[in-house]
Design a protein that fits this description.
With 351 residues, this protein is of the alpha+beta class. It contains twelve helices and ten strands.
Length: 351
């Protein structure tokens, strides 16, 4: 979409003003800006053309204009100026990043809580396997007594889970060794979806006296794969929506908060990747109808051990995209170093 430089200046000024004030922007306010340098009449004509192009909207007759989702998209892709973090912001982010926790789940939860506080938006925090095809790579079965054994499942994301299983039938250590061999020969390196009833029946026929244990072990393996796919997902600060004028309607705010906490929305979000480490979804681009009037900004970080993470926020389309994206990017870079080789956190450098 080709725009003249004047139209670009006007659109950028409208988005910047609306982000700051949450009020429609009129031609008189724009005419007072030094970098616009146009009369009110000229600005009105340009605003009318931008509206006809679908980049602006007029919420009320005789009111100023506000950006449309397409206008925000053009702003983010072409017009948004970079945001330089202040010394105070980098100090706050570095303090938040100096988390010494052993459990990934706690780190993800704390990261989401801190980001919500820093941005004043609800935060999304995800840690999930980087591999798209999750499989069991190894089964191990160990007898612990006459009526119990331990099942160990190793997965392709380098995860290891075990479970104590009570024996429903008499079984010997030799029976468990046979079952382990059959499971490793038939059910490794395939997904849960590929463990079909026909395949399981074949495994049972080969398992001898331990045939009745096949379904027990396979159910455990499928639970492990299912949980691994979900990873660790957290939402924090949902009530911060209520501090923004767009969500003064309690019913509207409640609908969004419910979507964030009770749906599979997090699982359906497109994770940022190496080519696009910061991803921005604006209005109708979102994965749920309830979020069509919101924007989501996400930044990617690497956890290691076959895992990747995402930290993001949800808020009105009138979001300060440059500032929020800069903060999330900085925070994600710090998490990369935290989970990496123990490098120092990034220091603030004066521009």
């Amino acid at each position: 979409m080709e725009l003249s430089e004047r139209k670009k200046k006007i659109l950028r000024a409208i988005v910047d003003n609306y982000i700051r004030t949450a009020e429609p922007v009129g031609s008189k306010a724009l005419a007072a800006m030094e970098d616009i340098n146009c009369s009110s009449a000229t600005i009105r004509n340009e605003m009318a053309e931008l509206e006809a192009m679908g980049l602006l909207e007029q919420p009320h007759t005789s009111a100023g204009r506000i950006p449309s989702p397409a206008g925000y998209r053009l702003y983010v892709d072409e017009l948004m100026q970079g945001y330089a973090l202040s010394l105070e912001e980098t100090k706050s982010l570095n303090e938040a990043l100096r988390l010494k926790m052993n459990e990934l789940d706690k780190v993800v939860t704390e990261a989401g809580r801190v980001v919500s506080q820093l941005t004043n938006y609800p935060s999304l925090a995800v840690a999930a396997p980087a591999v798209s095809r999750l499989t069991v790579t190894r089964f191990e079965l160990f007898m612990t007594g006459p009526k119990a054994f331990i099942a160990v499942v190793m997965t392709s994301d380098e995860n290891v889970k075990n479970k104590l299983i009570r024996l429903p039938v008499d079984c010997t250590e030799q029976d468990l060794k046979l079952l382990s061999a059959v499971l490793n020969a038939s059910l490794t390196d395939i997904t849960a979806e590929e463990m079909t009833p026909a395949l399981l029946q074949k495994v049972e026929r080969s398992a001898g006296r331990a045939a009745s244990l096949v379904s027990v072990v396979v159910d455990f393996a499928m639970d492990v794969l299912s949980e691994a796919k979900k990873g660790s997902r957290h939402v924090a600060g949902q009530t911060k929506l209520l501090t923004h004028p767009e969500y003064q309607d309690i019913d509207k705010a409640q609908q969004i908060m419910t979507t964030l906490t009770e749906s599979d929305m997090l699982a359906r979000l497109p994770m940022p990747d190496e080519n696009e480490p910061v991803k921005i979804l604006i209005g109708p681009e979102n994965v749920a109808d309830e979020l069509k009037d919101t924007s989501v900004i996400m930044a990617r970080y690497d956890i290691g051990d076959g895992m990747q993470g995402m930290i993001g926020v949800v808020g009105p389309t009138r979001m300060d995209y440059a500032k929020v994206a800069a903060r999330l990017s900085y925070f994600a870079d710090g998490l990369n170093k935290l989970f990496g080789s123990g490098h120092e956190l990034p220091e603030h450098t004066e521009e």
